[in-house]
Write a structure and sequence with these properties.
Two copies of one chain form a homodimer. Chain A has twelve helices and twelve strands. The first copy, chain A, has 325 residues and is of the alpha+beta class. Chain A has a single domain, classed as Phosphoribosyl-aminoimidazole Synthetase, Chain A, domain 2 (Alpha-Beta Complex). A seven-stranded mixed sheet of chain A has the order 7-9-6-10-8-11-12, with helices on both faces. Chain A has a five-stranded mixed sheet with strand order 1-2-5-3-4. In chain A, α4 packs parallel to α5, α4 packs parallel to α8 and α6 packs across α7. The longest helix of chain A has 18 residues.
Chain lengths: 325, 325
């Protein structure tokens, strides 16, 4: 019998997408769906967190609450949207202390308020385990919407912030390395709302998504959506300072930076002739924006490392299927 | 240690609502939240279904998919809204057969399409158990929004359709009574979208909600929101024909009609002087609309049964807390 374990998450999602007939202007398959509401698009995205696979042991209830809001807002950011509000559904055991839910809801509230929006409703159900489901709503102008598709050969590939910090935080918690900033980055992701809105307004961004599952997975997705290929220069990829502290081994560092994910930075492509405007955008938003490569029309996605060109493999996190070692 | 089991679902929700600072025009506590988007309200509601508590054994994957869409659309209906789209998050084991998810997603798609809307996005995660979370979006004119509050003394209390059918279906499945229509009603709830939109346009409806947790729980909620009391005449409550077939005992029948829930009919209050318009509304929508009582400014909610006035207890379904027998 064929099960979801045989298929893996991405194939399962493709099956679902074949069945679902969406009316939306942008349907399943991007960071958000976009619904035409006349003069602009309504954006909507939903994300489920289940204890076992998604919540590292060191995360307290406040962090869990913060995260479910942050990861959903990150999808709004990836489309260039301005948040309109969120709803959260909570499945929780009757044995959970009241403190736990109070702190978790505090985290939800604080994260939403920090990004000038709010939790407007929700649902609470008894369950054997903690499960959270968040849904974020946003709006974006029709011409300002940022999609996964749209890149053209010659476009520059840019990432916000730096990569590998959340991964370093994960290993710091696991091996008690005391990399507090990195642990905080993992526990309380920071959606790039302001940056996404600035990219949307800029007029020169040709595609965008967030890096929730790692840079390699994002490149794979952008490539699939645009029909283009991507060349990433590893030396230019902004590595979080904690990556060096988490691992001495260069290959393990590379794995953190390229494949771990959970940094919730944005990756976008832009018209090359606007490269000079990038510094202004970075200054306005107070967020580093680094060119890490270019869009090509080649055979496969390439990683350039130490002068060597290798195939950029998609090693991002995937559910259901057990990763072969 | 105080746990959620000590508190019960409603008290837990009240704790959450004290912490959350919502910006919405209508915040948590109604069937949907309503966000001001200029000329109209954006409605949003979310509902989680967990296998153990919410999914009766006889329900197949198609029914489960249909239900998660239907219960969310029912909340849009309760506010008088027109659906804009839905997103669904699915937590599922890797051992689930592919067939299962295909049928479940078929059910989601069919239900959404049946009510002239669609599933526009979602999320799929691995979990130890099946958990579904649906979120529905809708829109409604500012003056047409239907809230739980707003009833005035003298208003009539009206329900759509009939009550107790889903409960009869539940017992039919449990005791193999073969009440197929009732079982279908339980398995595939029918949200009153068209009816809610007609009530919104009528201009004479003063409050509304859906009857997901039973008539008694709905009356309790309407009373809490309006600050009024309600007098329900049991003899006038439209009883589904299957109720008599499920139980001979009058008290058990009454329990099905008043407390079981899952019928997803609408209960609303309206200005008495428009009573004559109700028949027209019922005809237009093809849905029975029955006056079952009135709004009062008394001490408590009253059930009139066989000429006797008794207190209408709130015995609707509540999570977390074990019901004392």
């Amino acid at each position: 019998m064929k099960t979801l374990g045989t298929l893996g998450e991405r194939e399962t999602i493709r099956i679902i997408q074949r069945i679902i007939k969406s009316d939306a202007s942008v349907g399943p398959g991007d960071d958000c769906a976009a619904i035409d509401i006349g003069d602009r698009y309504l954006l909507v995205t939903t994300d489920m967190m289940v204890t076992k696979a998604h919540i590292p042991k060191g995360m307290g209830p406040y962090d869990i609450g913060w995260s479910i809001i942050a990861v959903n807002l990150s999808d709004i950011a990836a489309m260039g949207g301005s948040p309109l509000g969120l709803v959260t559904a909570i499945g929780i055991t009757r044995g959970h202390p009241i403190d736990f839910i109070e702190q978790m809801v505090d985290g939800m509230n604080d994260c939403a308020r920090r990004f000038n929006t709010s939790v407007v409703g929700g649902d609470t159900k008894e369950h054997e385990d903690l499960v959270l489901c968040g849904t974020a709503l946003g709006e974006v102008s029709k011409k300002g919407i940022l999609l996964r598709k749209g890149a053209k050969a010659g476009d520059l590939v840019v990432v916000t912030g730096s990569l590998g910090r959340a991964g370093a935080g994960f290993f710091s918690m696991k091996k008690q390395l005391g990399l507090k900033e990195a642990e905080d980055a993992l526990k309380r992701p920071w959606p790039r709302i302001k940056e996404g809105m600035a990219l949307s307004k800029s007029g020169f961004v040709t595609s965008c998504m967030d890096i929730s599952d790692g840079l390699s997975a994002s490149i794979f997705e952008l490539s699939r959506n645009s029909g283009m290929t991507y060349e990433i220069d590893y030396a230019r990829v902004p590595k979080a300072k904690e990556v060096d502290m988490a691992f001495h081994d260069i290959e393990r560092q590379k794995d953190l930076v390229l494949n771990f994910g959970d940094d919730f930075e944005l990756i976008f492509t832009m018209k090359r002739e606007h490269e000079a405007d990038l510094a202004r955008l970075a200054e306005e938003t107070g967020c580093p924006m680094t060119v890490v490569g270019k869009v090509t029309s080649g055979e496969e996605n390439i990683l350039i490392d130490n002068g060597k060109r290798e195939k950029l493999e998609n090693l991002g996190y995937e559910h259901f299927r057990t990763r072969t070692p």
